[in-house]
Write a structure and sequence with these properties.
heterodimer, A: 11 strands, 48% strand, globular, B: seven-stranded mixed β-sheet
Chain lengths: 112, 115
């Protein structure tokens, strides 16, 4: 199975600051079609997860452009610029290149 | 608007069976693969099953293989998860999610396995 290692496990940031979350996979996430199926999700408190970014760097519908994703092969980063109060929650990376589909262990973002 | 509404929540004893449903609306259900993903209390996300848009292929996590069955009825826009031989470690919130990349998720239903 592909192991997804997310760091840090938690972050505490002030409104307006920028943060980055790292996700590293144990195998390359490049599929045979040349695409990389690495996604980022946010689970706000008491809510179901919502996909923010798909295929490394594509913003989901309605997702503000304060969110951005970069990376390739086995090393990926989610950046949140100008954090807002609504950004708190747990962020997960997920890979859908290989079966079984796997998730990172999550990064909890708290607002100072 | 895409909506996924799960049902079938409940408390069951170890060894028993249960069936979850997920009714989809707001998109052409028959064009998309669908997933079941679960989250044990205070834990992270665990993918458990995926079914292709036409039911031609199904994939399972090892933790549920042989006990759980994913299926769908495209005429009813409904996804199912039949769960047999339930164990205490199956206690979790169960979500259905659209597409291989999970671009939309349902609100989830709680399954509790306990004697």
């Amino acid at each position: 199975d592909v192991v997804m290692t997310q760091t840090p496990p938690s972050l505490s940031v002030a409104i307006g600051q920028s943060v980055s979350i790292s996700c590293k996979s144990s195998q390359s996430l490049v599929y045979s079609d040349g695409k990389t199926y690495l996604h980022w999700l946010l689970q706000s408190p008491g809510r179901s997860p919502k996909r923010l970014i798909y295929q490394v760097s594509n913003l989901g519908s309605g997702v503000p452009d304060r969110f951005s994703g970069t990376g390739s092969q086995k090393d990926f980063t989610l950046k949140i610029s100008r954090v807002e109060a609504e950004d708190l929650g747990v962020y997960y990376c997920a890979q859908t290149t290989h079966f079984p589909l796997t998730f990172g262990s999550g990064t909890k973002l708290e607002i100072k | 608007e895409v909506q996924l509404v799960e049902s079938g929540e409940g408390l069951v004893q170890p060894g028993s069976s249960m069936k979850l449903s997920c009714v989809a609306s707001g998109f052409t259900f028959s064009n998309y693969g669908m997933n079941w993903i679960r989250q044990a209390p205070k834990k992270g996300l665990e993918w458990i099953a995926l079914i292709y848009y036409d039911s031609s292929s199904k994939y399972y996590a090892d933790s549920v293989k042989g006990r759980f069955t994913i299926s769908r009825d495209n005429s009813k826009n409904t996804l199912y998860l039949e769960m047999n031989s339930l164990r205490s470690e199956d206690t979790a919130m169960y979500y259905c999610a659209k597409g291989a990349g999970g671009d939309y998720w349902g609100q989830g239903v709680m399954v509790t396995v306990s004697s």
